[in-house]
């Protein structure tokens, strides 16, 4: 059952290896070695890189490696009054993107309901053709369709998310893409690029263990979360959670003065985990390697929030605790209040879409789930 496998949440969900290991805007030595170009850059190109990415950080033992490694596109750490001003654009982006996510989800649900009748007749026709058509042995497409149909609605929904994360992970392995990946797929409030990385970094993992851990937890919780919210609302919550958790990370880094790049889906996954634990507080969870020890979802959520709060107060830097906390608090808020405030009030927007689509005809679309 999904609950037992999701229990890796204490160790796996927050495996933000790169977020935490950065000290003062400097990439970790191992990251630099693996991301660096094989050949040293020419002098004419190095000036261009310095202008684009900012001055390189160096230590005596790492100078040779860092000269060959593209550095993050940092600006100088902003001063305190100016630092808070850098949150204006990310805040507007967060609000706008969240609104667009839920608006698109409402339209998606409306269109899905409208096409359901047509799909029903198409399925009847497909079943009839399958009976008439001679069966093929070893048909790969048929095997894939059978496997796909055996998945739950939640597993089908998150399959696209997992595929996107896998593609971005492969892009980190291409040396010629390193500058693009660092600029757009890592989130840092000291960077020149502030808004697009808030979303793109949610699909970005440099470590295979980081990717595998996050995707395993997402897969484990997917069936419960999607059955609770519906696939359209789930996608809106997940994408919004990625941006909101990154904004929380930005705010904490600017307030504390501890800058550095962050990446990973942990913040968004924390929202999914917190939403499910809030909706089903008495559900039993277990640690995958210690299945004999069980605890309630409510206690697990309290422990996670307490650990991340302690990480912020004590200055732990192995995880991006601000992103985790922001994601968890958003998940709790959405189940307690957000669903009623946002999703249950989508009817006027859906009716407007229906009128635009039908040329002013009456009627509204789409019922709610959950």
Q: What can you tell me about this protein's structure?
A:
The protein is mainly alpha-helical. 64% of the residues lie in helices and 3% in strands. The chain is built from 17 helices and two strands. Strands 1-2 form a two-stranded antiparallel sheet. The chain is globular. Residues 1-71 and 362-370 have low confidence and may be disordered.
Keywords:
two-stranded antiparallel sheet, 17 helices, mainly alpha, globular, disordered C terminus, 2 strands, 370 residues, disordered N terminus
Q: How is this fold's topology laid out?
A:
Blueprint (H helix, E strand, L loop, with lengths): L1 H4 L11 H5 L7 H7 L7 H11 L9 H5 L12 H6 L2 H45 L7 H11 L2 H19 L6 H7 L11 H5 L7 H22 L1 H26 L9 H14 L4 E4 L2 E7 H18 L6 H21 L5 H12 L12
Antiparallel strand pairs: 1-2
Strand order of the largest sheet: 1-2
- Strand residues, percent: under 5%
Class per helix and strand makeup: mainly alpha
Rg, nearest Å: 23 Å
- Distance N to C terminus: 20 Å
What's the total count of β strands?
2
Percent helix range: 55-70%
Q: Helical segment tally?
A: 17
Average pLDDT rating: 77
Query: What would the principal axes of the Cα set say about the shape?
Result: globular
The helix/strand order is: HHHHHHHHHHHHHHEEHHH
The biggest beta sheet is recorded as: 2 strands, antiparallel
Q: Which residue ranges are poorly predicted, with pLDDT under 50 across at least 5 consecutive positions?
A: 1-71, 362-370
């Amino acid at each position: 059952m999904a609950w037992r496998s999701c229990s890796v949440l204490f160790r796996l969900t927050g495996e933000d290896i790169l977020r935490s290991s950065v000290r003062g805007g400097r990439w970790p030595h191992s990251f630099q070695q693996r991301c660096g170009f094989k050949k040293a850059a020419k002098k004419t190109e190095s000036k261009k890189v310095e202008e684009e990415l900012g001055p390189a950080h160096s230590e005596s033992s790492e100078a040779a490696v860092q000269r060959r490694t593209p550095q993050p596109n940092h600006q100088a750490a902003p001063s305190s009054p100016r630092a808070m001003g850098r949150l204006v654009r990310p805040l507007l982006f967060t609000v706008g993107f969240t609104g667009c996510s839920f608006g698109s989800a409402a339209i998606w649900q409306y269109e899905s309901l409208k096409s359901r009748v047509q799909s029903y007749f198409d399925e009847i026709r497909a079943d009839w053709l399958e009976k008439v058509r001679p069966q093929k042995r070893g048909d790969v497409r048929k095997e894939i369709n059978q496997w796909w149909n055996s998945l739950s609605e939640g597993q089908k929904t998150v399959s696209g998310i997992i595929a996107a994360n896998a593609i971005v992970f492969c892009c980190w392995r291409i040396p010629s893409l390193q500058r693009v990946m660092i600029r757009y797929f890592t989130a840092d409030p000291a960077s020149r690029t502030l808004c697009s990385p808030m979303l793109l970094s949610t699909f970005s993992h440099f470590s295979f263990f980081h990717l595998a851990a996050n995707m395993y937890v997402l897969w484990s919780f997917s069936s419960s979360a999607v059955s609770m919210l519906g696939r359209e609302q789930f996608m809106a919550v997940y994408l919004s959670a990625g941006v909101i958790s990154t904004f929380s990370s930005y705010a904490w880094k600017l307030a504390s003065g501890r800058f550095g790049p962050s990446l990973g889906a942990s913040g968004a996954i924390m929202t999914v985990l917190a939403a499910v634990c809030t909706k089903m507080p008495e559900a039993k969870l277990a640690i995958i390697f210690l299945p004999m020890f069980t605890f309630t979802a409510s206690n697990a959520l309290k422990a996670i929030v307490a650990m991340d709060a302690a990480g912020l107060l004590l200055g732990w830097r192995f995880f991006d605790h601000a992103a985790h906390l922001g994601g968890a608090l958003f998940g709790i808020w959405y189940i307690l209040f957000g669903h009623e405030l946002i999703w249950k009030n989508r009817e006027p927007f859906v009716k407007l879409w229906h009128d635009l689509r039908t040329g002013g005809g009456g009627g509204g679309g789409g019922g709610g789930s959950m």
